[in-house]
Amino acid sequence: MPADATPAPRSRWRRGGRIVAIIVLVLLLALASSIGWISRPARLSGLVLDQVGTSLGLQITASGTSEYRLRGTPMLTVRGLDVRQPGSATSLLTAERAYLALPWATLWAGGEDLTVRRIELDAPQLDLTALQDWLETRPEGGPLRIPTLTDGLQISRGRVSRDGWSLDRLGLATDHVSATQPLAARVTGRLLMSTTTATFDYQLALTRPAIGAGAAIAGITNVHSGQSRMPLALNLSGVLRDDADGMGLDRARLGAHARWFSAPAAAAPTVALALGMAGRVRYRDGGLVVAPLAAAIRGRDNIPEQVDATGFLVFGDAFALHLSGEVAEWPVQWPELPAPLSESNSPFPFRVDYAGPSDLSDPVHLQLSRDETRFDGRFQLPKLIDWVTQLADGTPLPPLTGSLTTPRIEIAGATLTGVQLEMDDGDSERDEGLGEPEPHHGSGPSR
Questions:
Q1: In-domain check, residue 226
Q2: pLDDT tens readout for residues 250-274
Q3: Is residue 425 part of a domain?
Q4: DSSP for 90-158, written as a single string
Q5: Residue 373 belongs to what domain range?
Q6: What is the pLDDT of residues 402-423, one digit of tens each?
Q7: Residue 401 lies in a domain
Q8: 0.90 surpassed by pTM
Q9: By C-alpha distance, which of 85, 168, 83, 163 is closest to 123?
Q10: Nearest partner of 150 among 186, 175, 171, judged by Cα
């Protein structure tokens, strides 16, 4: 080539080919990097959990091995799941295994799309205090975003616990979840509370899974305490609420049919009754409060046929109950009252107060009256139930401790006036410290 010759310019194709080659090389490197990244399940699981956590304001991690499938609908299984508020030392939720199947659109939507095909949780444990703390961080007036689960949700071997009680063997199964559609699910488990165990199998229905929706539960509960057992068939309904005073139900209605068997092998129920309750239910800081509360009992055989009352109920580390109302009539199976009480058609106004262990083993305070006759005292529920169930062969005097006053009473043809009787069920050791009996006062018989 001559020295003064000028090199011919490269063609546009050659310049473009170099650019294309660079772009192809970059894409190949990116693809190779992506293959290496996607081939590590821990990284893929981290992406998914980060996306879900970002949408809910939570930190979601997994400490165990992970599995995934990318063909078709991506599937991810993580073990050692841990869910908590960012920076919190307490886990809101843990689980041995979590399974998620979710579309690619959800995976890359950055939390904007919460459509999931299916979720499964094995042995999850829920901390109610941490849950309440997280719910309080949600934006004021901002509804909780509910994922759409096109193929449903399954929970097995779950557990929720608080001081004094726990729920275990929890199971939940539903075929579909959507924020705008009704939800139907089956819920099973066991409640452990002091010496009492209650297994349950319920059908749950919501008009939609959101605050303000209508809720209903129907099913069977079997309660075991000591040697006794009590199966119940119940229906509960209300409106879901989450207010400053806690989560719960407004306009709650409970109906239950109960049978109580005094021994495990008993063939016939000792007590049978129907119970109705209505009120406002709230759960907060480990305590359940039903206030105001209205209750109605319709019994048969040894149980009063009609009892109506109002009051409140508090269940947490201990149990508190207040009821005031009326017993319409004295049960005919109970010992007959002396005159003039037996001749009156008046109801029996009463007041019941209890504060103690959840198995109602402490004394219950009772005020009962009819016309001008008054009783003020206490009883132990297990002993009173035993007395009711053994009326045919037992003593006619109920196991009560307290004071009975009446202006007049007729016994064995004699009339006593200005009577005050002191009653003692004989369990003075348990009643110690609850108050000494009043001295006996009363007049002799008059004819």
A1: no
A2: 999 999 999 888 777 776 777 889 9
A3: yes
A4: S-SEEEEEEEEE--HHHHTTTTS--EESEEEEES-EE-HHHHHHHHHHSPTTPPPPPPEETT-EEEEEE
A5: 338-351+366-447
A6: 999 999 988 878 888 999 989 8
A7: yes
A8: no
A9: 168
A10: 175
